[in-house]
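Predict the 3D structure for this chain.
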Amino acid sequence: MSRGAGYDRQITIFSPDGRLYQVCVWEYAFKAISNAGITSVGIRGKSVSVVATQKKVPDKLLDPKTVTHLFQLSPRIGCVMTGLIADARAQVSRARAEAAEWKYKFGYEIPPDQLAKRVANINQVYTQKAAMRPLGFP
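Done. Predicted structure below.
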């Protein structure tokens, strides 16, 4: 069936094929990442991990030192973001707040998997509310 068949008018409606239309957000997010033209690679070893990304300065009026896709979330956790940089900065700010709140409440650094789950749960809400634009695409 086509998307214009009335199955995509609600926030969480499944098509006859079993596809949740509004969670096509992943397809849009991957498209935004590929349109950004930034390549990022991460490699994990037994005791170390390395992340590398391209650095493209979009305008010659910008200071090249201010353009980055690598962010530190906590003393032991970092991330690389591609796609829309404004959304990336909002995500980084939220992840830093979550990590700081965890440290304040429990007295130790948040485990990376817990931080990923907390941020993913917050982002899932953006795909289910009509008044919110899902992060990652315009």
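The chain is about 35% helix and 15% strand.
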